[in-house]
Design a protein that fits this description.
alpha+beta; about 375 residues; 2 domains; single chain; 2,3-Dihydroxybiphenyl 1,2-Dioxygenase, domain 1; ten-stranded mixed sheet; 9 helices; 19 strands
Length: about 375
């Protein structure tokens, strides 16, 4: 069993990034360690840190502010380490113990298939402190100047990949960390999206709590990863733009879950968060909006005002199922056109919504055109 524990960002300006996450996304500063800052909102835990070595400075020069470490929590650290190393994972930090007054954390770090992304694995069974030993409670912890946004946890993490690499990336996660493929559509575990810059291929995977076939994880910190790549001979699109601006593949976006996406989006928009609005035609098409808008208890106008995408999820065992999901995507958060945030509300749906995925990439294409990228 593994869970998402936290996401670390290497920042060109930690204070600027902290201000953005606090003021626009309603996260709260809960702990610090030197210049490192820990932000939290319910189960979302982000760590912002500055460059501390030449390698960090080189990454910032090439990629700008970047999510460069995804931290997993496991119950058996050495078993996880043995599996990863047997599968050929490159070790960045050997297993070690970190201790302070809160207890002890076992940890190791490995590289990932992406040059500028690592994975730290921790066991916190004997620790009751803030994040990791060495971090101290912030004086602002427990207080927030922003309205509660309704963000509850990280739903999934998406990577932009080089063309032709997503299958090998998925296999690395299967072999090294025990992930398995996640079905994106009713009949396939991959999805092809047509866009103005050519085709995109998407794969997804998740960490299952149980090895028994058909038993799926369901906790708020369970891990789902999405991989997206441009198909061969595609022109310029949002994936190629990310790869260019990031100087390679990496974390393209993180999806925050909310139980009320209308309220959350409206609140964050009031706080200055810029979202990407799909083309107005999206809301007048027979599918997906017109056929399922009655399911969500909101009219089309409220969805359109907040840039919300809506999609139903087929259920072969229940033809009259009302499972659906809603999604919103922000404009890039930092100085480069790379990393952004997704907001998602799941109403019984466990996938990602094939029609929404297509709409997302068309919306991002529109953003690139209108912004002159």
């Amino acid at each position: 069993m593994a869970e998402l524990y936290g996401l670390e960002f290497l920042c060109a300006d930690v204070r600027k990034a902290e201000k953005l996450f606090v003021e626009r996304l309603s996260l709260v500063t809960v702990a610090t360690c030197g210049q490192n800052v820990v932000l939290q909102r319910n189960e979302v835990l982000l760590v912002l840190r500055p460059a501390t070595c030449e390698k960090d400075r080189d990454i910032l020069h090439k990629s700008g502010t970047i999510c460069n470490n995804v931290v997993f929590k496991v119950p058996q650290l050495h078993a996880a380490y043995d599996r990863a190393t047997r599968a050929g994972a490159k070790v960045v930090h050997q297993p070690r113990s970190l201790t302070d007054v809160g207890g002890t954390v076992g940890t190791f770090t490995i590289s990932s298939p992406f040059t500028n992304v690592t994975h730290t694995v921790v066991n916190t069974d004997k620790y009751n402190g803030i994040y990791l030993p060495g971090y101290e409670l912030s004086i602002t912890s427990g207080a927030s100047d922003t309205t509660c946004s309704g963000i509850s946890h990280v739903d999934h993490i998406a990577y932009a990949c080089n063309t032709g690499s997503s299958e090998s990336v998925l296999k690395w996660y299967e072999d090294c960390l025990g992930f398995t493929r996640f079905r994106l559509g009713a009949e396939s575990d991959q999805l092809t999206v047509d866009c103005s810059g050519g085709g995109l291929k998407l794969l997804a995977m998740e960490y299952w709590r149980c090895a028994e076939k058909g038993v799926r994880s369901g906790g708020v910190n369970d891990i789902k990863l999405v991989l997206v790549e441009s198909l061969p001979n595609s022109g310029r699109n949002q994936v190629s733009t990310f790869l260019s601006n990031n100087n390679g593949p990496g974390v393209q976006h993180i999806a925050f879950h909310t139980s009320d996406i209308i309220s959350t989006t409206a609140t964050l928009r009031e706080q200055g968060l810029s979202i990407i609005y799909p083309p107005v035609e999206y809301y007048s098409l027979p599918l997906p909006i017109a056929s399922i808008v009655d399911l969500v208890g909101h009219n089309t106008r409220s969805l359109q005002e907040n840039g919300i995408l809506l999609d139903a999820e087929a259920d072969e065992s229940s033809p009259n199922s009302k499972r659906h999901l809603m999604q919103v995507f922000t404009e890039p958060l930092f100085d480069r056109d790379t990393f952004f945030i997704e907001l998602i509300q799941r109403c019984g749906a466990t996938g990602f919504g094939a029609a929404n995925i297509t709409a997302l990439y068309h919306a991002l294409e529109l953003h690139l055109k209108t912004s002159g990228q």
